[in-house]
Every structure is written in C-alpha cells, then in structure tokens.
C-alpha cells in the first residue's frame, strides 16, 4: 500500500531542514573569516614577530602616512589605499599602518582592519574596527556576521542587538537566528512569534529550542526542555522526546521513543498520532494481524485527521480500503480532497467508478 510520508518527513527531519539551513547560513557568513585565517596562515609568523625595518624605509612610510589627512583629495586617497593593499599582501603589519590612517576616509580600510584582527584572534581590536565598519557602511551581512560572532561567544545581549539590526535591514537569515537566540535566552514567547512568522507552526518557541539543542548534541538540555513542556501540559514535549530517543545521533532508545509517541498521541498531539498511524500502516502480517494493524492505524489517523491534518485524511481512506470499508474510505478521500489533496480526489473518483 502507498502511504503518504511527506508530512512525517517534515516532522522527523525538521532539524535537518530548518536548523541545517540556519547553520549553513551561520557558516556561510563566517566563511569570509575562515578564508581570511587560511589566507593569512603563512603570514601569522610575520605577525607575531616584531618587524625589522631600516630607518630609511620607516621614515618613508611615516612621511607617506603623514600625507593622509583631511586635505588629501579623493584620487590620492584611492592611490594610498592601493599602496596599503600592496603592502598588506607582502607585510600585513605595514599595510595595517596605512589602513588605520585611511579608516576615516575609506570604508574598505575598515574591512581590512576588522578581518586582520579577527584573523590573528585579537578580538578587542576586531570588535573596535567591526563596529566602525558597520556604522560606516550599514551592510546587512556584516551586521549579521557580527551578531553571529557574539552568538558564538555566548554574548547574547550583543548578539540580540545586532540580529535585530540585521532583521530591520531584511537580512535573509537574521530572523531564524534571532528566533533561536530568544530560545537560548529563555524568551520563548518572542521565539514563538518569530518561528510562526517564518512558517514553523508545529510547536512553540520552547519546542523548537529543544530541537535546536538536540541538533547541537546537547541532549541533556534538549531533554530538560521537552520535559518542561510535558509538565506544562504540552504534548509537543512527548514528540520532542520521541525524536530525541529515536533519531540517529540521539539517545537511541527505541522502546522509550515509542512510549513517548503513544503518550503524545493519547493527548491528541497531531505529529505523534500521525507518526503512529504511519507505523501501524507499514507493518506486515497475516490476514488477522494485518487487519489489526490497520485498525490501530485508523485509530491514530483519526486523532490527527479530526484536527485537520490533510495527509491523515488521505491515509484514512487507504486504511479503510484495506479494511474493505469503502463508505468510510470515500468519506475521508472526499474530506482530503476538499482541503486540496489532488491524490485523494483521484482515489475518490476511482471508487465512485467502481460502484
């Protein structure tokens, strides 16, 4: 029998879709820094050593640097920026001298300074120059990058500040990470609001925060959050525990995971009920056993279908066909078709022709 599994995959693989997307964006936007570190790997030795420059060369550098002031025209400033870049490629510390003088006039110099100090792990100076770069350019991706930096360091106050700035500028990934941040900060109502705006409506902010910690392999924290949901009377906690104990990389206790699934379904939780329906629909057996499994599938599909779950409606039609109850099969195919299931409409027409 063909069983619809697309909705189940959305539930079970949520972490692999939503959070992978977030973490992909996280690493994507930090890629510039990673590449910068690799690029400067060979230069790090130079950076940690004091530069030996003879007096004449240093004097020439100081003379050039002195020319960089408010009186310098735009063409000369651009020339100096090119000189700074050439020096940076050969000897970063000399290039940095130029960039520091040019920072007031050329925003690109700020970018070099921030990248340089990040690359050598001088984070106070990185923060100083990154803040100036953001003030000057208001670049949404740079703002988002800075939020990620603080998020990684668990400086949630600063991370929140810059995520909010990035959201205001419609940076495409900022709202996802801000929702996760609110969850990490325990501000679950705010997290819920953002998750719903993003189209994630299978649970509240606390539920998605539990999934986040599962993905990060912080199983203790994930389990604690799901148990909090259960204490609050929210059956999403049971489905979260099911995922935690069932999935690869989780706590791996299938007996426990199945019990959590049943408890969630008994409380009317749609994801749990639908998943149990799929489980029983997929079991093989002899005539009486096979029939019994499909009766159980019907029991759980009904829980989800009566709450408007489209795929459960369709699968009820299939299960009732196995049980040779065409009247109920047609009833549920019709209900599924009325909420937009095209496959259900095809099955309904087939049964009508067979009458």
Automatic annotation (TrEMBL):
Mind telling me which InterPro entries this protein's record contains? Answer: Sel1-like (IPR006597), Sel1_AlgK (IPR050767), TPR-like_helical_dom_sf (IPR011990), TPR_rpt (IPR019734)
Q: Which UniProt keywords apply?
A: Membrane, TPR repeat, Transmembrane, Transmembrane helix
Q: Name one GO biological process term.
A: ERAD pathway
TM spans (from-to): 12-30
Record PROSITE patterns: TPR
Q: Which domain of life is it from?
A: Bacteria
Q: Where are the TPR repeats?
A: 310-343
Q: Which Pfam families match?
A: Sel1, TPR_8
Return the Gene3D superfamilies for the record: Tetratricopeptide repeat domain
**Official protein name in the record:** Tetratricopeptide domain protein
